[in-house]
Amino acid sequence: MGLDWDEGLFVVGNAVTGAWKSLMALGQEWRAFVRVAKLVGSQGEPPRFHDLRHTFATMAIGSGVDVKTVSAILGHSNAAMTLNVYADALADSKKVSMDLMGRIMSAGLS
Question: What residues form DSSP beta bridges with 13?
């Protein structure tokens, strides 16, 4: 967007003033939201803001978005890193694929 890179800038900003939110402010607002909404994560703990990133990646991969694309969106240096971090999203895909292969092989034997 023509802005010089600044380590203090973040993706989320104030829609009214256009100012960027600091990581600390964003974290505080997220924790307040979690508390008010009584959110509980998959491990029984309150979800962290960073957990949204994991949820996005898991849902994208589980929905069929290729890992290379998810990796690029997340800013990972390569798809291997994405696979190492979010491989749990592929468990259901493996089952679906193995069920499909089982049907194909069974049809070939009939």
Answer: 20
